[in-house]
Amino acid sequence: MNHKEYTVSLILLGALFFVFGLVSWVNSILVPYFKVACDLQSEVQGYLAQFAFYIAYLVMTIPASALLSRTGYKKGALIGLWILALGAFLFIPAALSRAYNLFLLALFTMGTALAILQTVANPFVTIIGPIESAARRISIVGICNKLAGILAPLAFSALVIAPQKEKMAAIQAGALEGAARDAALADLLHGVIAPYAVLGVVLVLFGILFYRSPIQDINPARNAAAEGEGRKSLFAYPYLVLGVLALFCHLGTQALSVNTIIGFADASGFTSTAVFPSLTLSCTLIGYFIGVVLIPRYISQQNMLKVVTTVILLLSVLILLLPPRAAIWCLVLMGIPNSVVYAGIWPLAIHDLGKWTNPGSAILVMALCGSAIFPLLYAAIADGGATLHTAYWILIPAALYMVFYAFIGHRINRWKRI
Predict the structure, then answer these.
(1) Which strand (E) or helix (H) includes residue 400?
(2) Residue 331 to residue 170: CA distance in whole angstroms
(3) Residue 417 forms part of a structural domain
(4) Structural domain of residue 190, as residue ranges?
(5) How many structural domains compose the chain?
């Protein structure tokens, strides 16, 4: 691949990751929005929106990998972007019918699309250049992802929530009843129609642009390094299996730090709560810039992973020990170390897989379901009697495991018999 092809490929992948961030991180504000607009009665019901979106990574990634084996990656990206557009268009009948289940279907459809697109994008970012600088490339596209993540909640708040703020306050205060309350709820949901309709059109057009671009169609199975040892299955590579669990824990803790922070801020007495996801993602953006500058010139991606996982563990402990109004800033700051974890784990888990590179990438993408499961567990713990503050204890075991993988797990090359 020459320099021009490399540059165009990286730009297009950056655009893809921007799309990922745009449709993924808006979930942080969709949860409290749906809780009011769809008249939900529990924390668990609210976080089903996130669950429906991210569980698609677990359910649909293997079928997505099989699809890409038949279509190739460029056509697969086109299909993925059009499915993503379909999910956006489904918000229209969901809003008109006020059916929460239809919203969940729309979110699952969008998650399915991202399962395809992530399976395309992640191995491509790893393979287009030297493995030693993979973390730097992942940091570059991650900046695009988190920039969209910063903008998405703010845009949703400005376009959908701000015009309806008084109605939302009246509904939450119980000031409306009967037909007036039903009309207000309908108006709230109708607010998502225009933004998601525009998003759907943009995604259709971007799919055509990506497919017709000069980007090289890459098949990781064909282009994977020949040094793979030809083991009998994926599960014969301990560093991959352990890496999937590490990525699951990382993405779960990252989802907690972004997608639960509005509810925690509201319970802690803050007023402008919609800004907190963007603050956390701004810290993540800072972390990506740090990764681009430092890796691999000043510190290896392995050593950086050790540093950031240790910092995440320390912040997790502080979240539990500090008062809520101070603990929330530890959640915000967690964005900085979280930004580098994904870029650190992926290359360590995917190296030297040979013919298993493609399915190995697929099961790593499946780890994104951690973003579905952790917030739902958090909500269940809170509904079970814990406060929104103390429910963050689930960060501790996840952080401990990430530290284990950073220091020991990624170096395990063979399973030892007991």
Answers:
(1) helix 395-407
(2) 30
(3) no
(4) 3-411
(5) 1
